[in-house]
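Late entry, evening session. Most of the bench is empty. Finally got around to the prediction I had been postponing all week. Sequence below, unchanged from the version circulated by S.P.
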Amino acid sequence: MSAPTRWWLVRHAPVINPTNAIYGQVDLDCDVTDETVFSSVARLLPKDAFWLQSPLARTRKTAAALRAAGAQGPDPVDEPRLMEQHFGDWQGGDRKQIRERHPEAYRRFWLAPADERAPNGESFVDVVGRVSEALDEWSGKLPGRDVVAVVHGGPIRAALAHALALAPERALSFHAETVSVTRVDLYPDGQSAVVFVNATPWRF
């Protein structure tokens, strides 16, 4: 069997969100001050990997912090298909106010979060589609390589849905802690393996 492309999916650092807004693709800052977390994750990551990142500030800052902590590889390449879910008209808005102003749409969205879209936004099914496309395309370009991708919780769940052929609503059950690492291997023949999910090496 040919060697897989080994995806090391790192969720970004904790978002600084004082208003508790629905942020999605809003470009908020993140907290990268915990040196123990970043040095631990940097040691876990492969030394000769190709790097990708979502083009949002919080993923770029997380990637920079990992590299400053000792992670190695070429400068990360921006990949827009690995961005967080777009919440349309709700992005940047206060959760409580949106629930009060749009109670039925808000209720439907959280009852069926895989299929429903916020007004002018994406569903999680949409996210699975674009993330799957990106993973397959880059795997074809980088067969047998390690790829570190600094991304978001939604795309990590989408990658797991793709690798395990899960219905999108089932993949929403996975948890990806900030700065955790999830490893997915994609083989040239279409087979896949999930090596680990939500690894937090600073705890051990």
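Two things to note before I forget:
The longest helix spans residues 124-141.
The longest strand covers residues 192-199.
Will write this up properly tomorrow.
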